């Protein structure tokens, strides 16, 4: 290992397949967050307290007797709020490549975690580390396996969001503030985990070569 890789880096502990699994766990955490983020706003938009706060509709008892049924009277406002919420993802996608080339993949992931847009660069780090190692050790056949795991975790994040919000809809008859505040706040858990552990992972060898750190890249 190159002397610039600190002694706590997982690259000193794991090799080959184990290292690939560790790297995919890191990327999977980010992909899980992205999936959760995708599914979360659907339930939030149906919460009575959120609808009343944002002022894009109201709730009423449906003809079948279902209480607190959302009635959206200002779809432009509702859609605009959601669009602004996801604007951070767009900004992250556009800036991720440029920042990643300037400061490296690891620091970009950490910056994205702090900015709550971490989804763009962990897959890049995963693919660069994984593909280079697969070429070295003749494990190209595992590429599809790791991609399948990645998308499974993405959908799992959506599922967690849906089930969490479904469960919260029964708290205080679905009118509690917790129904929409907790799902939004829950996002901080995978973000904090990602921010805490990313420093223990190796940098992309392609980026290391690009900035002249050849020994560390090898």
Offer a quick outline of the entry.
The chain has 218 residues and is mainly alpha-helical. The protein contains eleven helices and two strands.
Shape call: elongated
The strand line-up of the biggest sheet is 1-2
CATH architecture type: Up-down Bundle
First-last Cα distance = 8 Å
Examine the coordinates and then state which fold CATH places here, giving the name of the CATH topology. Answer: Growth Hormone, Chain: A
Helix content: 55-70%
- Total number of strands: 2
Fill in the keyword field for this structure.
218 residues, mainly alpha, Growth Hormone, Chain: A, 2 strands, 67% helix, Major facilitator superfamily (MFS) profile domain-containing protein, MFS_Sugar_Transporters
What would you note in describing this structure?
The protein has one domain: Growth Hormone, Chain: A. The longest helix has 29 residues. The N and C termini lie close together (8 Å). It contains eleven helices and two strands; from the N terminus they run H-H-E-E-H-H-H-H-H-H-H-H-H. It is elongated, with a radius of gyration of 21 Å. The model has no long low-confidence stretch (mean pLDDT 83). With 218 residues, it is mainly α. A two-stranded antiparallel sheet has the order 1-2.
């Amino acid at each position: 290992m190159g002397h610039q890789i600190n002694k706590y880096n997982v690259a000193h502990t794991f090799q080959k397949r184990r290292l690939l699994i560790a790297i995919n766990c890191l990327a999977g955490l980010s992909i899980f967050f992205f999936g959760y983020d995708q599914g979360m706003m659907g339930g939030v938009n149906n919460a009575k307290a959120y609808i009343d706060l944002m002022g894009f509709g109201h709730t009423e008892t449906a003809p079948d007797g279902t209480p607190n049924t959302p009635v959206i009277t200002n779809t432009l406002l509702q859609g605009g709020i959601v669009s602004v919420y996801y604007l951070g993802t767009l900004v992250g996608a556009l800036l991720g490549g440029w920042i990643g080339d300037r400061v490296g993949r690891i620091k970009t992931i950490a910056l994205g975690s702090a900015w709550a847009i971490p989804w763009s660069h962990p897959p890049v780090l995963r693919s660069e580390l994984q593909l280079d190692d697969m070429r070295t050790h003749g494990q190209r056949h595992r590429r599809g396996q790791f991609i399948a795991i990645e998308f499974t975790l993405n959908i799992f994040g959506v599922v967690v969001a849906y089930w969490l919000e479904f469960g919260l809809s029964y708290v205080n008859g679905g009118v509690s503030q917790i129904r929409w505040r907790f799902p939004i706040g829950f996002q901080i858990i995978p973000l904090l985990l990602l921010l805490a552990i990313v420093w223990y992972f190796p940098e992309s060898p392609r980026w290391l070569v690009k900035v002249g750190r050849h020994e560390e890249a090898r």
